[in-house]
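input
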Amino acid sequence: MEKMLFFNSNLIISSNYYDIIGSNNYLMAREYFSISLIYNQTDLFYAIISAIVGFYLLILLLIMKKSPFPIWITRKTVHFLGGTYIAFIINFINSLWGVILSALFFGMVFLILVFASKFQILNEYFVLKECRENERNFTFLFNTVSTLLSLLILFIVFNGFPGVFMAGALIISWADTSGEVVGKNLPFIKYKIFNKKTISGTIAVFLSSIISFLVTIKFCEFFYDNVNFTTPWFWKIIIGSILCALMESLSWKWFDNILLPFCGGITILWLYFS
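output
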């Protein structure tokens, strides 16, 4: 497959708005970005694929909720799979309309399931039942929507910088998930600031953040022709990973799902301005 020429080139006014800065071959935006509403058949195809993936994720959620698995495993499994899909698929969509269509198609699938079940799905799994321990009512649904809004902001504001959105999505799906999985199964040195945490879980967030950043950088260098992070950047992603771990450990309730995407995205953005 031919490598993409910069990030979603249909989203910006002209490639002349970008220039090679210094000997580091970093790309830096010189003007504001203009997101296009022009979409093509490729965007329509990926929107349909996204609706199908969303449908099966909902079905998986419903199946696992009826299984003997703990609630947090159900939540984190869907969280991990959905976030990973979003992180990668966004690189193939060429316009804002592609994103809007994907959201609309998924919304249609969700509404069809709600009406087909006579609102049982909505009442049973997204509103009244606990999806996070000791949290009820609309918490799970509100958490999901607020996380997606954070990612949407990253996409719109930093659409000209490959990897910013991807890093934000991977941090929230990989690092945040690993923190809870490791923290619950290997609870080493428990502590509480706002929420109950463990040192082992915090370390898992740190290590998974490093992996998320490495995957983002290598994917962008492979996928986009003129993205090449040539100067030493590893120490920057170490700092970014430390900040992600601290943010996750210091967050109140579910606010880490809103803040972590920005922490991950800004870390990758930092690599462009060096």
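quick obs: Residues 1-34 have pLDDT under 50 and may be disordered.
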